[in-house]
Amino acid sequence: MSVDDFQFLLGVHGVNLERWPWHFRIRARLSLRRSPHMQALMAREVEFEQRLSAITVEPHSANFCARIIASSAAFSLQPEHHPIGFFAALARLLLEIAPPRPAMSLSVIVLAGVILGYVWNEAVGNQSAETLFSALFSLQKSVL
Amino acid sequence: MAPTLNAESDESLLTLLASGSHAAFATLVNRHAPRFYATAYHLVHSREDAEDVVQDAFLKLWRQPGIWDPSKGAKFTTWFHRIVVNAALDFRRKRRARLEPLEAAFAVSDVSEHPDDALENAARQNLINEAVKRLPEQQQLALTLCFYQELSNDEAAKIMGLHVKALQSLIMRAKSGIKIMLKIEDIRADQLRRRRRK
């Protein structure tokens, strides 16, 4: 293993050879035993990492985890305290039941329209539908 | 917390969490929050802020358990590290507190004012702290994940969304940057010692 390779691997994987990719470990150990230059590089890197390790993390507060858990519990109660409105609930329901693709959504809307029209026709009767149609027709004629 | 859940894997807990299990959520928090706190702390440098970042990330998971997609094949810790890291970086960008000039860090480590070895060491430690804090964001993150969190280069690269080579380049640049700052300070301290002898 060349000194440059050793120096690069030392930089990216650190001084603990166990963290190096396995295929480099044996060669690195052998090279390290033979080369005083590599030993010096290793010693310098060990000293540097020791200094880096001395940067301490301030311990988190004692109730840190408990606070997160408590906050989540409080959050889950929120919908009971603040019930969502009718339209928001309807929108949420529609979003949940809406098919994932626009083409499918369109088909569902058309199908719903046909069913609604059929039900309307049955409930109100053909005569009323004809009256409505002729009224709309005469309105169109008068406008044009 | 239900003790039986402690033996469950993260992925099983997430499945339970998706069905609204608060016990599963609590188990995940107790298992991982301290580790994610350490990552966040290295990025935001304050206990309160790091705790807030981790808390927000966990609450996001609680409110929207669907954001975890097991079909993507990522480990929970890798995926959640990304969530915490992004939240910490967002927090930093928002805070964007005015940093003191670099000279301030060196001034604290001025050995002429602290002749005692212990104080000198403390000052040098402070210098390393400052040097790490002043690294560019990506270099600091690479150093945090690979050195302080002892993650493999592969895992850190996944968290950062980088190729491994790019991550390794960031680590090398981070370490070189800190070494240069320390070298400058060593020369400075040596000059001060000589001046004192005269």
Describe what you observe in this structure.
Chain A is mostly helical and 144 residues long. In chain A, 78% of the residues lie in helices and 0% in strands. Chain A has helices at residues 3-13, 22-34, 36-53, 64-81, 86-97, 102-124, 126-143. Mean pLDDT of chain A is 80; it is low at 77-82. Chain B is elongated and about 75 Å long. The interface between A and B is medium-sized, with 27 and 40 residues.
Outline of this structure?
By secondary structure, chain A is mainly α.
What are its keywords?
A: 144 residues; 7 helices; B: 198 residues; mainly alpha
Question: In sequence order, what are the helices and strands of chain B, one letter per element?
Answer: HHHHHHHHH
Structural class of chain A: mainly alpha
Estimate the strand proportion of chain A: under 5%
Query: What is the number of strand segments of chain A?
Result: 0
Mean pLDDT of chain B: 83
Number of strands of chain B: 0
Please, how many helices of chain A? Answer: 7
Separate helix tally of chain B: 9
> Taking all residues together, what is the mean pLDDT of chain A?
80
Low-confidence spans of chain A: 77-82
SSE string of chain A: HHHHHHH
Distance between the termini of chain B: 67 Å
Give the N-terminus to C-terminus distance of chain A in angstroms. 92 Å
What is the CA-atom radius of gyration of chain A, in angstroms? 38 Å
